[in-house]
Design brief:
Ubiquitin-like (UB roll); 5-stranded mixed beta sheet; two-stranded antiparallel sheet; alpha+beta; 112 residues
Amino acid sequence: MSLRAGSRLTVKVRCFGRLRELLNVKEEEYQVKGGATLKDLLLKHIPERHEKVSKSWREEIFRMARGKIIFKRDGNPVLRDYLVLVKGRPLDLSYELRDEDEIMVLMPVGGG
């Protein structure tokens, strides 16, 4: 289903590990405009809701240089060691959000 620009949609975000502790939430819903991307959610919507920890959020999830987020040539920020899944699938941060998307932000698990 295609949404018109300016329409509202609801997405659910679940954070794990350090991010869950940082935000002090397990899961929350966001109302975003049609056309919003994963990048918008991570750079704008989550930090705005959690203003007191927004700097820590950015430093935790994104690669930084001299206090600024590093961006790829395509305009997407470079994630630290986090994995962003939409409905269980890893997608590029330019992915356009859809109504009722379920986003998980988690740190990859390694073992040996």
